[in-house]
Amino acid sequence: MEREKILQRFEHEIxxxxxxxxxxxxxxxxxTGVPQVTDFLDPIQQRAAEKSLHLLGEVKxxxxxxxxEAERVRILIFPAVSQAKIQDxxxxxxxxxxxxxxxxxxxxxxxxxxxxxxxxxxxxxxxxIAREGCAQIIVSPEIASYLQxxxxxxxxxxxxxxxxxxxxxxAAEPRSRDIKATVxxxxxxxxxxxxxxxxxxxxxxxxxxxQIKLNWQSVKNASxxxxxxxxxxxxxxxxxxxAEVRGESKKGRIHIxxxxxx
Length: 262
Prior knowledge:
Elements: H1 3-7, H2 13-32, E1 36-37, H3 43-56, E2 59-64, E3 74-79, E4 92-97, H4 107-115, E5 124-131, E6 134-139, H5 141-150, E7 153-154, E8 157-158, E9 160-164, E10 176-183, H6 188-196, H7 200-208, E11 212-214, E12 217-218, E13 231-234, E14 238-248, E15 254-261
Antiparallel strand pairs: 1-3, 2-3, 4-6, 4-9, 5-6, 7-8, 10-15, 11-12, 11-13, 13-14, 14-15
């Protein structure tokens, strides 16, 4: 199937970009016989890339992010006549440890420290909080040494950084806290306001600037509908899941439970 016909199947730009990048790598694999690998992809990008590769045919692929439940993955694309396994997907793991005294550090703190070094988000996979003050970071191999040599502080805490074997990844469930709230409606701005502790008026500029994502896609419509199971993220504030949508109160407000990642 032709590249443009495949891309026409995707409605959103983020999907088309992920699909186009995957197709381009697949074409290179077909021409040279050499496997190619994508950057780390979020779930929306992953689905688009995998769908495009399935439609294209002529190649096989493996998606892997370092452990079974990884959210962000790389896709290894290889000739259809070949075989590959998850160990062939190029990833590295580094551990940044600030010690138990840094119990307040969370996923957002570690990610912010990494990106402040000038590294691109697509080169970083999942960040697993292994224990208080300690994170295991899945990365592209080409940045692993740089991270080990240059990441020396997270927040106000000094960190020691070392490489890990894949078998040592904790792969623990992300830590979260429940937020119980009532909202007037299941609008994006109303739910985000309850979860991030900001007024809707303060959220409005962030929404217009595309800093709020719904299911990993930027949404600039404050009235966009939100449902149970959706993931909402705000740049600099982390992300949360709409875990439950319960019944209405006597005053007609909707009871919800949000799981805020910490």
